[in-house]
Design goal:
- This protein has four helices and no strands.
- By secondary structure, it is mostly helical.
- The protein has one domain.
- The longest helix has 49 residues.
- Keywords: Coiled coil, Signal.
- It comes from Chloroherpeton thalassium (strain ATCC 35110 / GB-78).
Length: 168
Amino acid sequence: MKYKNLFASVLILFAFAFMSGCGQSEEQKKLASEIEAKSKEVTEKIKAFKAKESELKCFQEEYDKLTKEIPENEDLKKLAQKHSVLIGDYKKQTKALGEVVADIDVLPAKLQENMRFSEELIKEDYEKAMEKYETAVKTAEKLVEKHQAVCDKMRSYRDEHSANADGK
């Protein structure tokens, strides 16, 4: 009889723990929701950078067309080299952001699935992932600025060339 009472008590205790969020503290729940929100934010950033990547590819097509219109020009070649390096950097940065998302995405599952993980370790993982994220975003934003500068130079070459062609 004692075992039945003990079993019933344990069952009630587990039911209570399950009903109150599987034993998660309010702080753990808050951290999990914060991590999930940040993960969504990073995913949106990646989408924006992917769109910028496709803009860079369109820019490459514009450059190729422009080089056919303008005779050999050393400055234009330098711009093209700078642009191709920029595309490579951009792809690396987008990949780095993807890795950050992968790091962040597993944290809520760790927090919810395995209560053995200490809250401090989860926070530490999250903070490291966020540092990687901030660094990746800053680098990508600098790349966007560089891309814009290269685009502006290319457009000024095109405008200058068309003005010279109109003047002849």
